[in-house]
Write a structure and sequence with these properties.
The complex is a heterodimer of chains A (351) and B (295).
Chain A (H helix, E strand, L loop, with lengths): L12 H5 L5 H21 L2 H27 L6 H19 L3 H19 L9 H19 L11 E2 L3 E3 L2 E3 L2 H23 L2 H11 L1 H6 L4 H27 L1 E2 L6 H14 L3 H20 L1 H7 L7 H20 L3 H14 L6
Helix pairs in contact in A: 3-7, 3-8, 3-10, 3-11, 3-12, 4-5, 4-6, 4-10, 5-10, 8-10, 11-12, 11-14, 11-15, 12-14, 12-15
Chain B lengths: L1 H31 L6 H18 L4 H24 L7 H22 L15 E4 L2 E4 H23 L1 H11 L1 H6 L4 H27 L3 H18 L4 H26 L3 H16 L14
Antiparallel strand pairs in B: 1-2
Helix pairs in contact in B: 1-5, 1-6, 1-8, 1-9, 1-10, 2-3, 2-4, 2-8, 2-9, 3-8, 5-6, 5-8, 6-8, 9-10, 9-11, 10-11
Classes of the chains: A mainly alpha (351), B mainly alpha (295).
Chain lengths: 351, 295
């Protein structure tokens, strides 16, 4: 739980309920924003801006997954399919009708929310891993539908997307997309944080902890699960739309099921909380960058294994890391972070 | 009519293979309540392993097969010992995530160690078409069908007639009761993983004898057998068989008749659609035990 530093007490209700509780934390938040918006763009190269943009987009999707997994307890293996829906939804609207990003993205999100609602229907009858299997089936069905969508989705050959325009200003460079995605991430984090403080958020947490008891308390368990699915798929749709516009062209192959498993892995590593989602994304992407940096070395060590060795190695490595985290640190990095933070906060009484 | 019969024949063949793989999932679930999402990766990895022994290093079948079986059992024991054992008592998500990640590790290893295009097993018996009325069945397919049925029968014999099979069934019913009877439950878990991997590997090898050893079809095989498991019910061996046949038939019949309208590939999605329908209307499958929530 959020502990206040020694000697700080809340003296009024607004103070107690506030998101940012002490002037010290306001300062930290301000520093973070300055670093994100001013310092990083100043010092980061194009390559790292690309990495950070990818991190931001993945983080939006993983935050959506977090709502399902961390807050409602439903392990969804089909998350990548909703990203694909969002990407293809906005791409198709942009490609065939030429509508602007600010129209296609919300529309694609609505599509994802609707499909999410459909996928949530079996939740009325089953629990536990049967829902996970439902999401797996949904993943393959959605991807198959996209692949066989004929002229609408251009199947396997890829769909090209228009550009993002703000009035007459066209977002073209790395930096522009970095700002767009980081802003999206910040807004989504704020939205989710606020959501978790409402009765819907508390309902989700109670469903995760014990859905039988939640039913007794009068919480509509099915409705809560459907709401969680809707929010989760909506956020995945936003991430997918951002990805589509960032890349300019999308194909079905880039939405493989292993990405879904990696997103779940990011939640495992980071911990099933909002900050955990972001930790997990950063951690796994950093690992990915490290593997990519070491790729030439792997190439010279094992020359017989060919070009796909790096991707395969990454897959194996991530699987092993995920299992290691499951065994040794199941509550993820955010839990460790909380412990460290609390030790500092309650110093000198950190026992 | 001939087309229909042909579809039925190949549907039965596919279905038996699915049934065998889903038996692998069910064995693990029955004993340790862990749903094995890694089955696709296991099927692929084991097929490639056998290819490595027989197709690449050219070991004789008499040497390769026992080594192969031992390796598979060892893999099962290691999985239980190193990964799922430490995860006992943790919530459901941990076991699901662990098997998912494991499946990923296996598929990654397959890409890593055997990159490039698929491989083919050397032919042991020359192929020949057999005629069943108007339908044609290749000799290889018939051998595969017979082997799968034999494997199913062997498993049933093992499960119902031997002492170890009895121990496995007892553990599947109730862990604490089994432990109180002196059954070493941990060993049973390791054994069930080993048996499950051997069964799934048999099916995978059979399939790759027909279609060649390559990752994506084998992975897809594993995933579709999840649909079979849902259809037949998680606790039922008979359900696996019936469910496998049903899904195999539906898939071949469906793709046979629907493919011209959809431009091909409908066979890939039919098992999942069926699975989804069953999850909505009859989630515990045909033979599964209904879970009644009691406080």
């Amino acid at each position: 739980m959020m502990k206040k530093p020694s000697g700080v007490f809340d003296e009024s209700y607004p103070r107690d309920l506030a998101l940012v509780r002490t002037p010290y934390r306001w300062a930290l938040l301000a520093t973070l924003l300055v670093a994100l918006y001013a310092l990083i763009p100043l010092f980061a190269s194009k390559y790292y801006l690309d990495v950070l943009t990818n991190i931001a987009i993945t983080a939006v999707a993983v935050l959506g997954l977090q709502v399902l997994v961390g807050y409602t307890g439903v392990v969804s293996i089909g998350h990548v399919a909703f990203m694909a829906l969002g990407a293809y939804g906005s791409a198709a609207l942009s490609h065939h009708l030429g509508w602007s990003f600010w129209v296609t993205m919300p529309l694609a999100t609505v599509l994802c929310v609707a499909v999410g609602m459909l996928v949530a229907l079996p939740a009325l009858r089953v629990r536990g891993f049967y829902i996970s299997v439902t999401t797996l089936a949904a993943h393959y069905i959605i991807l198959w539908a996209i692949l066989h969508g004929g002229n609408l989705t251009n199947g396997a050959s890829g769909l090209s997307v228009g550009e993002v325009t703000l009035g007459t200003f066209v977002l073209k460079s790395q930096l522009h997309f970095y700002f767009l995605t980081v802003t999206a991430l910040a807004l989504v984090t704020f939205f989710l944080n606020s959501l978790m403080r409402t009765k819907y958020g508390r309902a989700m947490v109670s469903v995760r902890d014990n859905d039988l008891a939640a039913e007794f308390l009068g919480i509509n368990v099915f409705g809560t699960k459907v709401l969680a699915f809707m929010i989760s798929s909506g956020l995945a749709g936003v991430a997918g739309a951002l990805l589509a516009y960032y890349q300019g062209i999308i194909t079905v192959e880039q939405f493989a099921i292993s990405d879904s498993i990696w997103m779940l892995g990011m939640l495992v590593i980071g911990g099933p909380t909002i900050s955990g989602a972001i930790f997990g994304v950063v951690f796994l992407r950093t690992l990915q960058q490290m593997v990519l940096a070491g790729a030439p070395m792997i190439g010279t060590l094992l020359p017989a294994l060919g070009g796909s060795a790096v991707a395969a190695f990454m897959q194996i490595f991530f699987g092993v890391v995920i299992v290691a985290f499951l065994i040794f640190e199941p509550r993820g990095l955010s839990h460790t972070w909380q412990i460290v933070l609390n030790k500092f906060r309650t110093w000198p009484f950190s026992y | 009519m001939a087309f229909f019969l042909q579809m039925i024949v190949s549907g039965v063949l596919t279905g038996t293979v699915y049934a065998l793989i889903s038996l692998g999932v069910i064995v693990v679930y029955k004993s340790s309540s862990v749903f094995n999402f890694a089955v696709g990766g296991i099927v692929a990895l084991s097929a490639f392993l056998l290819w490595q022994l027989v197709g690449d290093w050219h070991w004789s079948a008499w040497l390769a097969l026992p080594v192969f079986l031992l390796a598979l059992i060892l893999l099962g024991v290691l999985i239980q010992r190193l990964i799922l054992g430490p995860l006992t008592g943790q919530p459901l998500m941990s076991a699901v995530m662990a098997t998912l990640a494991l499946g990923d590790v296996f598929t990654g290893s397959t890409i890593l160690f055997w990159p490039g295009p698929g491989r083919y097993f050397p032919d042991v018996v020359p192929d020949r078409p057999l005629h069943l009325g108007p339908a044609v069945l290749s000799l290889h397919s018939a051998i595969i069908l017979a082997t799968c049925l034999a494997a199913f029968g062997a498993f049933l014999l093992f499960f119902h007639r031997t002492k170890i099979g009895l121990a496995m069934r007892g553990t599947a019913e109730d862990h604490s009761l089994a432990q109180s009877e002196g059954i070493k439950v941990n060993r049973i878990f390791m054994l069930s993983w080993g048996v499950a991997i051997v069964i799934a590997a048999t099916a995978g090898v059979m399939m790759s004898l027909l279609y060649g050893v390559s990752l994506d079809p084998l992975n897809a095989l594993g995933l579709k057998s999840l649909a079979v498991v849902i259809l037949g019910g998680l606790e039922s061996v008979a359900g696996a068989f019936l469910g496998g046949l049903l899904i195999g038939l539906l898939e071949t019949l469906g793709s046979g008749y629907l493919d011209p309208y959809v431009g091909g590939g409908s066979g890939d999605v039919i098992p999942f659609v069926v699975m989804l329908l069953f999850l909505i209307f009859k989630p515990y499958g045909i033979f599964g035990y209904k879970r009644i929530e009691r406080v």
